[in-house]
Design goal:
The structure holds 2 protein chains of 2 kinds.
Chain A: H1 2-13, H2 21-26, H3 31-60, H4 70-104, H5 113-132, H6 155-161, H7 167-179, H8 191-219, H9 232-263, H10 277-311, H11 318-331, H12 347-375, H13 384-406, H14 409-415, H15 419-449, H16 455-481, H17 498-528, H18 567-572, H19 578-581
Chain B: H1 5-26, H2 43-77, H3 93-122, E1 130-137, E2 140-145, E3 157-160, E4 162-166, E5 171-177, E6 182-186, E7 190-195, E8 201-205, E9 211-217, E10 230-235, H4 237-247, H5 257-268, E11 299-300, E12 305-306, H6 309-317, H7 319-322, H8 343-355
Parallel strand pairs in B: 1-5, 4-10
Antiparallel strand pairs in B: 1-2, 2-3, 5-8, 6-7, 6-9, 9-10, 11-12
Helix pairs in contact in B: 2-3, 5-8, 6-8
The chains are: A mainly alpha, B alpha+beta.
Chain lengths: 584, 357
């Protein structure tokens, strides 16, 4: 009895470690806290990737520049791509999904809270292991898709050159090894091993997270929240999760075979020993193309939440927006070889992939039309999230059109692997995914923190981003048409590339300023703005706005009952409630 | 909040200035006979450029229509004091079906052009009259012309950095790599094809006019991917035959004392470990370019430098500064270099190599 009292007193006097500020974040299994951790992590990596982008544009601002040595440049552009895809967009989208999906569907948490925490910490350590490479032996340096055999190293070839004293002997040993079919060490350092380890940790995290989302969405919806009444962001998160579960194993297999080649002496990708370098490309892109939609579908979901709220209308064509997402999901598994039109596939096979690429453009077009139609006859409020939403639609349209151009196969022979492709991916992932993420941050920040980000600074940031991204990425189309290949650490003058490169670099400088403004806005809001936001500051429609800002640990005092796609609209407009008008 | 009208006006001016800057920068299309895909010099590039025109027109129309629709919506339905309430419209299936069908039609028309052009370009209109093998190394291109008596080639030609073809001839180019993946691309003559170890890739080209066209490696292949360029010389028939005749001779003997001394430097300084000169060195598996007719080439060092005595001196002495990580070592006595050539040695060596016409 006495012992028990002492123990209780001890606990009361000295807070448990998991209740301290830091400890509570490290040990949390609350989906909202995990979501915020994901978003912080993603945004920090976004700034790291942005610094890498700035270094790239600094080096390419003028011809024959010498800011970065070629080996450093290769690490920087590889880590820029890897960071932005695997450490910025994916974790940030997972963060929004974690924070929002349980709130949106009226659940108290994700289905597997501890699995959720494990997923986050795998991302944390996966990111660290990718960046630790800078300290331990060099960062990955073969591009974000790590084509074999540039990433390959057969142990036999490694030993053939060793032990020979002079350069000539080594060179001759290498030539002899080549003649004997033993060549194949193009990446002797640990760079690629770090990439494989990091990517696989992140991949495991994504699969765990995806299974969690699928179960949560299918099993934990509030009473009355049928699949067809679910917010579109939840729809897109569900489709994204299915894509990851089916696409990631292909990347795991590809990278493990590469690891075997590099360390166990197998020859999966080594042509001289009967392997095939193209095996890597097929395996990688059968992950890589669904991956592109993994990055953009959650952005589609965010835009489909923001545009209706700030137009004061329901989304136009809910069913078509949702099911075009499903169509994109299925088709995304049939288009991988459109990254490989120049590898010499049979013409008929290329025609197949040209056709599937054409088909995947149709549901994407349907989405864009529905977004514009959502604003039609609305009452549009241009708060910062709406600016990003509308900006997304216009800019993503360019990313869709230049993507369709890349599917025109003979034209693709000219522009694939040039700056035209760089322009395309940035219109999709920067003007698309990153714009949507900023729109989402401005929109959901009050819900996450109880504070509202500054509108004036937000608008300045938006306009600088819009100008900066067009200045940075539009000239890249022309550079590609003028014959500039991508991934060059420098270029000669007088090929018509000089001014356009300078312009692109100026554009990145503008984007840099825009990001500084965001950091100022964020710091100002966190430090000086009172946490006084009401439940529903934007006059919104979905369930996350039915609870306090920020929400309590259990999310809702009582689980709400849902009768339509816009439960909050129904409460605020009982006479015009959606369920009175249509039976959906 | 809303911005002051003056702020908006300035924003508008700034936006126009930006568009102007992009347009003006794009006006510099590079030199005649450079790397501009929009200035085709052969039927392959011309067909590909036609498709660019088609997709460009279609894209522009779609962009203008959708953006105009969005802008009209923004200005017309922006919330103002007294503007009407939003209409609660949740969709319209007829409209949805309409705008599923319309882009489908547009896209499939484009697909029709795509596929028909693909098959038209898959094989040349007439059988090739010249065969060349292009070999991608890290990081330079080697060109082999196998024996073809019709073209006057009776012994195999081996050269680097520079490829010659006759104007008007359909050229079949076999693509070979024993290392990593490269991509063979001459933008003004046609699209690229990857050079993949273990794959018998090939492409065909034809030049409609004489000229020197820039060739590049288009697939990232390591640290010096940027410096893996070459030139394709589309020669008149007479010029091509003269080039072929010259390339089949053995290396000219040194004609001056300096050149003779230079040849000694070449044979004694380790150059032969990697380079062949027909008639001078014993043929052996070579890591570097064949130098038999080195003096006749316009580019050296994998297309990095033009072939002048000054550049060649710089290249031999400081190769690792000019092109870090290439297989060519420096000969300036710096750490890692394979020798320390004296001023006299390097002068003689350059004289000898430049004499190899």
């Amino acid at each position: 009895m006495a012992v028990g009292t002492v123990a209780t007193r001890g606990r009361a006097a000295r807070k448990r470690w998991s209740q301290t500020a830091l400890g509570s974040w490290i040990t949390t299994t609350d989906h909202k806290k995990i979501g915020i951790l994901y978003i912080y992590t993603g945004v920090i990596y976004f700034f790291l990737g942005g610094i890498e982008a700035s270094l790239i544009r600094l080096q390419l601002a003028v011809p024959n520049n010498t800011v970065l040595r070629p080996d450093v440049y290769d690490q920087v552009f590889t880590m820029h791509g890897t960071t932005m895809i695997f450490l910025f967009v994916m974790p940030t989208m997972a963060g929004f999904g974690n924070f929002l999906v349980p709130l949106m569907i009226g659940a108290r948490d994700m289905a597997f809270p501890r699995l959720n925490a494990l997923g986050y910490w795998l991302v944390f350590f996966g990111g660290l292991s990718l960046y630790a490479s800078f300290i331990f032996g060099g960062a990955p340096n073969a591009g974000w898709f790590s084509y074999a055999p540039l990433t390959n190293c057969t142990p036999a070839a490694l030993s053939a050159g060793l032990g020979s004293a002079t350069f000539q002997q080594q060179a001759q040993a290498a030539a002899t090894a080549a003649l004997n079919g033993q060549s194949g060490c193009f990446a002797p350092g640990a760079n690629t091993d770090w990439w494989i380890i990091g990517i696989n940790l992140l991949g495991i995290a994504s699969i765990l997270g995806s299974l969690n989302f699928i179960v949560t969405i299918l099993r934990l919806r509030a009473p009355g929240m049928t699949i067809n009444r679910m917010p579109l962001f939840a729809w897109m998160t569900m489709i994204t999760s299915f894509l990851l579960v089916f696409a990631l194993p292909s990347l795991t297999v590809a990278s493990m075979l590469l690891l075997f080649d590099r360390h166990l002496g197998t020859h999966f990708y080594q042509a001289t020993a009967g392997g095939d370098p193209l095996l890597w490309q097929h395996l990688f892109w059968s992950f890589g193309h669904p991956e592109v939609y993994v990055l953009i579908l959650p952005a589609f979901g965010m835009i489909s939440e923001i545009l209706p709220v700030f137009s004061g209308k329901p989304i136009f064509g809910y069913t078509f927006v949702a099911w075009s997402g499903v169509a994109i999901g299925f088709l995304s598994f049939t288009v991988w070889a459109h990254h490989m039109f120049a590898v010499g596939l049979p013409t008929v096979a290329q025609a197949f992939f040209a056709t599937s690429t054409t088909m995947i453009a149709i549901p994407t077009a349907v989405k864009i039309f529905n977004w514009v139609a959502t604003t039609w006859h609305g009452k549009l409020r241009f708060d910062t999230p709406m600016l990003f939403g509308v900006g997304f639609v216009a800019m993503f349209l360019i990313g869709g059109l230049n993507g369709a151009a890349l599917g025109v196969v003979p034209f693709d022979y000219q522009i694939t692997d040039t700056y035209f492709v760089v322009a395309h991916i940035h219109y999709v992932l920067f003007a698309g995914a990153a714009m949507a993420i900023f729109g989402g941050l401005f929109y959901w920040f009050p819900k996450m923190s109880g504070r509202r980000l500054g509108e004036t600074l937000g608008k300045i940031q938006f306009w600088l981003m819009l100008i900066g991204l067009n200045l940075a990425f539009f000239p890249m189309h022309i550079l590609g048409l003028l014959g500039m290949p991508r991934r060059q650490y420098t270029y000669p003058p007088n090929l018509g590339w000089d001014n356009l490169n300078l312009l692109a670099s100026i554009g990145v400088a503008v984007l840099f300023v825009a990001m500084l403004i965001f950091i100022i806005n964020f710091a100002k809001t966190i430090l000086f703005t009172p946490a006084n936001q009401p439940n529903d500051p934007w006059d919104a429609f979905t369930l996350e706005w039915a609870t306090s800002s920020p929400p309590p640990t259990e999310n809702f005092k009582t689980i709400p009952v849902v009768r339509s796609r816009r439960p909050l609209w129904d409460i605020k407009h009982p006479d015009k409630a959606d369920w009175r008008i249509a039976a959906h | 909040m809303r911005f002051h009208p003056k702020t908006r006006r300035w924003a508008g001016v700034a936006l126009l200035a930006l568009i102007g800057a992009v347009v003006l920068s794009a006006c510099d299309l590079g030199p005649e006979n450079g790397a501009n895909t929009m200035r085709p010099a052969g039927p392959v590039a011309a067909k590909e450029n036609e498709l660019f025109a088609i997709i460009m027109i279609v894209s522009t129309i779609v962009f203008v229509v959708v953006t105009a629709w969005l802008l009209i919506s923004i200005f017309r339905f922006r919330a103002r004091p007294g503007s009407p309430e939003a209409r609660q419209i949740a969709g319209d299936n007829r409209i949805e079906i309409g705008w599923t069908i319309v882009p489908s039609i547009i896209l499939f028309v484009v697909l029709f052009f795509t596929v028909s052009y693909m098959f038209a370009l898959a094989s040349p209109p007439t059988p090739p009259t010249l065969n060349v093998t292009a070999i991608g190394h890290q990081w330079w291109w080697e060109f082999h012309y196998p024996v073809q008596t019709a073209q006057g080639i009776t012994t195999q030609i081996v050269t680097a950095d520079e490829m010659h073809i006759p104007v008007g001839a359909v050229v079949h180019i076999s693509l070979v790599s024993d290392n990593v993946i490269h991509s063979f691309w001459v933008p003004e003559l046609g699209g690229k094809t990857d050079v993949i170890p273990g794959h018998d890739n090939a492409l065909w080209l034809k030049a409609d006019r004489t000229g020197i066209f820039r060739g590049e490696c288009a697939e990232y292949c390591g640290n010096q991917h940027a410096h893996m360029d070459y030139t394709v010389h589309a020669d008149s028939d007479a010029d091509f035959r003269a080039w072929v005749a010259n390339m089949q001779t053995q290396a000219v003997a040194p004609a001056t004392d300096a050149a003779t001394a230079g040849q000694k430097v070449f044979l004694s300084s380790g150059c032969v470990a990697c380079h062949n000169i027909d008639g001078v060195t014993k043929p052996h598996p070579a890591i570097g370019p064949n130098l038999t007719h080195f003096g006749s080439r316009s580019l050296i060092a994998g297309g990095v430098l033009s072939n002048t005595p000054d550049n060649l001196t710089r290249w031999i002495l400081h190769a690792q500064d000019v092109k870090p990580d290439s297989d060519m070592p420096s000969f300036d006595g710096s750490p890692g270099s394979q020798g320390n050539l004296t001023q006299e040695q390097i002068n003689n060596l350059v004289t000898y190599l430049e004499s190899l016409q």
